[in-house]
Design goal:
The protein is of the alpha+beta class. The protein has 14 helices and 16 strands. The strands form 3 sheets. It has a 7-stranded mixed beta sheet, with helices on both faces. Strands 2, 11, 13, 15 and 16 form a 5-stranded antiparallel beta sheet that branches. Strand 6 and strand 7 form a beta hairpin. The radius of gyration is 23 Å and the shape is globular. The chain starts with a strand and ends in a 17-residue tail after the last helix.
Length: 532
Amino acid sequence: MERKAWTHRGALALLLAGGILVTGCSGSGTSNDSATVDRSVPGSGGPAGGKRAPTAPSAAPGQQEDGASEAEDGADRESVAPDYLSTFALDVDTASYGYARRTLGDGQLPDAATVRPEEFVNSFRQGYEQPKGNGFSVSVDGARPDAADWSLVRVGLATRAASDTGERPPAALTFVVDISGSMSETGRLDLAKTSLGILADELRDDDSVSLVTFSGQAETRLPMTRLQGNRTRIRDAIEEMEPADSTNVAAGVEVGYREAVEGHREGATNRVVLLSDALANTGATDADTILERIADARKEYGITLFGVGVGSDYGDELMEHLTNKGDGNTTYIADEAQARKVFVDQLPAHVELRARDAKAQVAFDRRTVQQFKLIGYENRKVADEDFRDDSVDGGEVGPGHTVTALYAVRLREGASGRVATATVRWLDPKTRKAHEETGTVGTAAIDGKLWGTAGARLQVTAVAAYFADTLRGGDLPGTPALGQLATRARKLASSTEDSSVDKLATAIEQADRIRNGGGDEPPGDEGEGELG
């Protein structure tokens, strides 16, 4: 089999020749998501392109029946004070939760810097109503926890599930596999090989795959190859992988995107899948430098990046940043059961996209809301004025995904009426036409008690968010102690008969024992490996 080596010098040559770059989701927004909105602040313009945001509480213009945004008459609309807006790019990552469970199972608390509440929340089924067509449905609800004057407001977005008949465009997947020395640990390269072998059995005959490996340098082991008639050849290439030396993630990503471009298929879903512990120690080791070299692939070919993390020592920050900026998402797997869930139950059905550059904006009503705080999404914020600027990147979302944003909201005393309007904006993956959909919530809909009377799925969402916030040392109003959270999770696991909620309860119990100096417990199942 012919193999092509890609060294750092080769990477530099490609860069000088015109390289390939992925721009990603804006992470430098200026919206104030923990704002006190007790004052009137003049607005400073509206969304880019000469459009102005409508007066609070609405953040969206009128909607056409197909969800496309109607043209706004900026002269007739008053600008919204920035303090009343919360804007962020959609995120379906779940790796933070999976890695936290792995760490807790090993008897340690996760590093607070690796805990992202939105990824905990998005690891669980929500039960939102799906849209009838492509695009999103928007659901907004909430309830009162045990905290005076505070409520939780849940903004839920959902895409239509993949067809049960398996109808989808063919996939062209480039697998970039880390074979560095650190991957020799049990549960790393062996798990990556198992995962790819499972997927090779599940993909259709009209799908294509290529295989790139990297250690100190990158190597193409298999060019883009159709599954039909070549499954044995593909499995052999997978089985031949053996651990080598250092970890040059940059070289692997660059060669992977080069192969994805060379094997690009019109009408197919073209994606790079990176399997790694992301412990880069050779070549470019920061995400921005790596991504700068591969941007043309995203712009010209629409190739997205899906990251699969493995290993007890895991470069969470690098992998998360790569996929956020690479128009993709990240998950984490720790065993074969999770690998099967990701590579059999999820990835084949989710290789296509429902939405590109999706962003959400929530406008709070100054007449009813005194204070609000978005729980998580710190590195997914988008400047409020960039919400309708379609040159500013958002998140990529596939079929059957749900995205949840949870807010802690303090209402004004005696407030009654509308609380917030949530708008999601996205681009059609094929036509790049912009669409919007909107939902609203009022005070009556968030006035019920969270524990016991709210829906079970909202309670699970709250438990996951409170758990994450506790792990990273937060102070959300109404947060129960870990022991109380575990008890609530156990009850919810029983009422929902959902094994993922049972595992959440186990993780909370483990965290409580570790914090209280409890004895070692045998490791449990780690990570859910959800795509969203």
